[in-house]
What we know:
With 706 residues, the chain is an alpha/beta fold. It is 43% helix and 17% strand.
Amino acid sequence: MSEPRVRRAEIAIEQSHVDRVYTRLAELRAQAEAMRTKGYELGHGAQREAVFEQASMLFERDMMVFHANQTLQTLDAEYEGLVFGRLDHLSRETIYVGRLGIRDAEFDNLVTDWRAPAAAAFYQATAEAPMEVVRRRVIRCSGQTVLDVDDDVLIADAVPQDMQVVGEGALMAALGRSRGEKMRDIVATIQREQDEVIRAPWRGVTEITGGPGTGKTAVALHRAAYLLYRYRRQLGGAGVLVVGPSGAFTNYISRVLPSMGETNVELRPLGAILDGVTAVRQDPAPLAAIKGSLRMRRVLLRALRETPPGVPDEMRIVYRGEVLKLRGKELEKVRRRVHTQGGPPNRSRVRAAETLLAALADKAEENARADGRSVDREELITELGERIDFHRFLVVWWPVLYPGEILRWLGDRNRLARAGKGVLTAPEIDLLAESLTDPADWTVADIALLDELRVLLGPPPKRRRRAQRLELDAAPPPRGTDQHGPQRPEHYDEYSHIVVDESQDLSPMQWRMVGRRGKYASWTVVGDPVQSSWPDPEEAAQARDQAFGTRTQVRRYTLRTNYRNSAEIFDLAAKVVAGHAAEGELPHAVRTTGIAPDVRTVDQRGLRDAVGTAAKELLDAVEGTVGVICSMARVPEITSWLEDNGDERLKVIGSLDSKGLEYDGVVLVEPTELITESTTGRRVLYVALTRATQQLTVLASDQDWL
Ligand SMILES: Nc1ncnc2c1ncn2[C@@H]1O[C@H](COP(=O)(O)OP(=O)(O)OP(=O)(O)O)[C@@H](O)[C@H]1O
């Protein structure tokens, strides 16, 4: 048979299996529906029964409905390409690999879940170590239709007469496909080096490093899905948290886990880790460096011990006809005494009352001594401690404190100078105070400070918590990959597994914030040191190790193949960091397109037209998305330039926000500006240059960046 006819025949064979799978899926769905209906009927019946019977019937109803709903949720996930692989073993046994396991009515396997041990050979078998697999086949579907098949022969001399082999390079085909708004899963083409990381043991810390486009993010997400499948009992209840650099990024990856049937994972950008407040604005690099530094912990601690603005600076109370008076300095001394005993201020009001009463007793004794009298201390303390005017004073003088409020105080330069004395330099104090004067709008770096303050202050009394919420921000916290995610208590800190993506950019204070959520967790940590924009890597490493706990075992993996960029594009990016990356730190790009990056010198006055033209050219040239990447400062301007374009595939994005994202075509505007905007500018430019899968146009008014 000719190659196209063989291919057609093989596609037809796979189509008939895929049809069986979808028929079975419909049956399972109908069964789950029926179970749910029956559960509800049981609930209605219960109303007529005696109380004891009623309770047990309602329990049974809840269990039935719960299980039915879970099954339906799994079956209803968007299974694009439910079946994507097939293994033909030496024993002539065949298994199909797919996004979930399905058995027929006789309990025979129709599809094996890709995470099951039996499917591991689909990713791990090679010609050198074939694991008894003669032929590995990737099946590409659209909806329920098989479009194509692609085979690898692993034991060439064991191919039976009647076994056909078609195609070449399912991976290359997948890599060449156009990109959409959201990242796709890679279950059909996971590579061996990636599979090893995905299936690594779950305990301790698994660290994944590698250059841009090596699939670190994809691997970390598949690992989360794998761990939940294999260790659901250990991990499922407490939950998995995935932390990404920005909302654009978490949105970009949001479809990957649901496409594998996992909805029980929370995705949160760094600006939305703290419940009740969401920040998207980034600080300029020098400011972010101050806010992220561990030194801020001392500054915050001192700030919250200061006298709150606006509290009374004198106390007067009448005791048995005599006025007892504490002046400003004396009150401050009392406040200091309470703080030096430690403990979060919101938990210290009782201690504050005791210390204040002791100071009043001292005062009364002092007065009495002058008149040659004596005072019964015990009596005074008991009597004043029960007085309403004493308590009225106490609540204003020792108010409940909220994180947002303390950070706002630091917008007052004098206050910040006192709190930062010997810790921050004068220029740092100027910069920080200025940034905190506009409190309405928190930045991403502020969130870690607010979270630190939350812990340092301690929880406000219960009935005040609502007020604290409003104090932080009225926006509801982002929850999970979708609304089906579990409802967890506020400031939940018992995740069983935490995935941190783009970890090279977490500041020490952010590590503390994330670490707090995983006191008992195992970790998957993804990063590329060469892409780091953090100025003090050592301090960050220290905070990071602390987040993991001291005796945690760390497993390290490095991915070395760049699957995103064409070799032509990556070559240019590599030039930009030459001398900034160690030998062997840069990955190897496997795909060539024959299209070199287009570097254009433009006149600054003509920039607007040049951007418009380049964007339009790329939109015409590629099928998927086009990103216009520029310095953070230029985003509003360029967005307005392209407003009239109207093509949904076109996005304008600032350099720092482009982390982790990718586009088929990229227009990179004024590369030198990316370098000068940040303290680690070359690395930021390197990140931006490695976002394109197919075509890259660089528009530069100078050649300094090269
Ligand atoms: N085995 C694979 N099969 C198909 N596509 C893959 C494979 N591995 C990676 N890719 C694709 O390569 C691209 C880059 O992957 P990913 O974003 O996970 O890389 P990364 O290492 O996190 O990159 P960066 O550090 O630059 O953000 C994605 O489009 C991903 O789907």
